[in-house]
Amino acid sequence: MSHPSVRRPVVGIIGNMSLLNESYPVHAGGTMNSEAVAEVAGCLPLIIPSDPRLVSVAELLELCDAFLLTGGRPNVHPSEYGEDETPAHGSFDRCRDAITLPLVRACIERGQPILGICRGFQEVNVAMGGTLFPEIRDLPGRMNHRMPPDGTLEEKFALRHPVRFTPGGVFHHLMGAEEVMTNTLHGQGINRPGARIVIDGTAPDGTPEAIYVQGAPGFTLSVQWHPEWNAAGDPVSRPLFTAFGRAAAEWAAGRRPALARSA
């Protein structure tokens, strides 16, 4: 006699618009994101075509239990935080902006879990009213956080600097350490934190690296580095994705935060 399988929580992985072979448009997600969601978080990875012509935030909230806000080469458009576009801001994906920013706000209000990575970390800050620096390495006293232009994937995602967490804070408790080593592959970073954004970890040059939303009823941890790389083997990535998976499972099981139940 066969037994019904237990449904894994569904994690919507925000896809990025890109060109395959420089001509064929695709919505894509890195394999390492799907592997981290499936193998470490224990969830079902589902790549989302982040385009408001194709999907709506309301549909995504019903379909998925949690969301992984991935990194991506295009940046959040500066008009989303009240600034003019300049060449330093790089390229953009306005369709992704139109999906992820309202999605972040809805998840925070509902208590539905989100995990922000790199661009996703920046999206959480912008969604809450914060601003971004267009190029961290141009600021006095800051290091170059960008991905090395050459080398293997292992070399590009190698651990490059420490991140120090607030003693006794959320990330300190999660990681079991006040300081950890991370990779770094980003050009932009937080300028002004958004409303309720708590900066819980920083790089040695003061660049914000770990945040959460104060008073949010659900999981809102976000990081500026890329924990999806070697997520199963890295002592920093593994607890982050494990905790995210637990939060997704709670939501899938119908165990809602008090605020979400009263909404």
TrEMBL record:
Annotated pathway, please?
A: Amine and polyamine degradation; putrescine degradation; 4-aminobutanoate from putrescine: step 4/4
What Gene Ontology terms for biological process does this UniProt record contain?
A: polyamine catabolic process
Cite the InterPro entries for this sequence: Class_I_gatase-like, Peptidase_C26, PuuD-like
GO molecular function (one) = gamma-glutamyl-gamma-aminobutyrate hydrolase activity
Q: Which CDD domains match?
A: GATase1_2
Q: Which reaction does it catalyse?
A: 4-(gamma-L-glutamylamino)butanoate + H2O = 4-aminobutanoate + L-glutamate
Query: Which Enzyme Commission number(s) are on file for it?
Result: 3.5.1.94
One GO cellular component term: cytosol
Query: Which positions make up the signal peptide?
Result: none
Name the keywords, alphabetized: Hydrolase
Q: Which family does it belong to?
A: Belongs to the peptidase C26 family.
Q: What does this protein do?
A: Involved in the breakdown of putrescine via hydrolysis of the gamma-glutamyl linkage of gamma-glutamyl-gamma-aminobutyrate.
Its recorded name reads gamma-glutamyl-gamma-aminobutyrate hydrolase
